[in-house]
Amino acid sequence: MFSNLSWELLLMIFYYFDSPSLEINSLCQCDKTLYKRLNPYLYQLADRSPPRVDYHRSDFRLRAVGGYPLKWGCQKGVPGTVYKALIYGATIEYTTEGAPKIFGWAVENGRDEVLNILIKRQDVTPWRGHTNIVKLLLKTYDVEVDQNGRQGKTPLLWASLLGHQHILEILVRTGNVRVDFMDPDGWTPLLWAAGNGHNGIVDILLKFGASLHPKERVFVQSPLSLAATYGHDMVVRRLLEAREVKANVMDSCGRTPFLSAAINGHEAVVKTFIEFGLVDVNAGDSVDGRTALSWAAENGHDAVIKVILQCGSVNVNAKDFEDRTPLSWAAAMGHLNVVTALLTAAGVAVDGEDIYGRTPIARAKREGWDRVAQVLEKHEHLVIE
């Protein structure tokens, strides 16, 4: 009778038994048809947790929290059981002991075949952050610490990307890793660490000779540019302290790191650049000729505007390739706070025309920013068009 039912329905029936796993195991041993249908389920079973049907999966695969066969296979060193448990859906995260302990059993008991199966799994390799596993592998086995893995990344790249500082330090101290190795997209460990704000990792990589400007890179931003773009002030500081840093190198959009920080409204980073004195606050990008003040004005970053205006050398009326000033951009976008801040600067011109013959007030009126237009009209230096 049971053999004529689908395996999904059988599992739902056995769910109501006192010991569903025992009942299924018994049937698997006495009926070949049921064995083929239900045996995979046994490899998913936990030692204590009841099964549940995941109705969101199209195949109604029955998942169990735990992974008891996987645990047993690792303890006893039975690669076939470990392999089947993983194939049929058991994962390291679902085991009650967690990845480090399971790895520990395989390593400490000399289960080479089991270990080889485990280290090929994407959910148990070093980029998961299991420091103890990495130590065990390096201590006990002759492993290749710099091998290309998932997505063409080495363990060092994964540690840099995900912020696993302790693991990264272990890896670099082996002396067998390439600190400037690029993944298929041209990202080096330092690029990943800088872009994700991992200050401690940036510091370690620099100490071990990571290049601030890797040659023949595919990616178009430097570590400093990435850190500035995403507002990682501590990373920016660390990079600016390096002797070989080139603070004004432009990315593929023709922008310097300082410009990227201003564009994205990172006040602290903008302050840091000005503090180090390595940038020209009046330098424009190579595409539109726009300064940091211009970009911040368009994007409404009034805090950044105030920081830049404190520089005595700033040109508040700097024009881009369309002869538009920061005030023109702020007025056109309706940023009243920015307009107000710019009007406090000495010598600001409110009547300057761009190549289209439009003044800031004309821009504000054209876009319907009446309040901005009123503020500009009240300014004493206004020249009505």
UniProtKB/TrEMBL annotation:
Stored SMART domains: ANK
A single MF term (Gene Ontology): protein-cysteine S-palmitoyltransferase activity
UniProt entry keywords in alphabetical sequence: ANK repeat, Repeat, Signal
PROSITE patterns (UniProt xref): ANK_REP_REGION, ANK_REPEAT
A matching Pfam family: Ank
PANTHER family: ANK_REP_REGION DOMAIN-CONTAINING PROTEIN-RELATED (PTHR24161), M-PHASE PHOSPHOPROTEIN 8 (PTHR24161:SF121)
Name listed for the protein in its UniProt record: Uncharacterized protein
Organism of provenance: Penicillium hetheringtonii
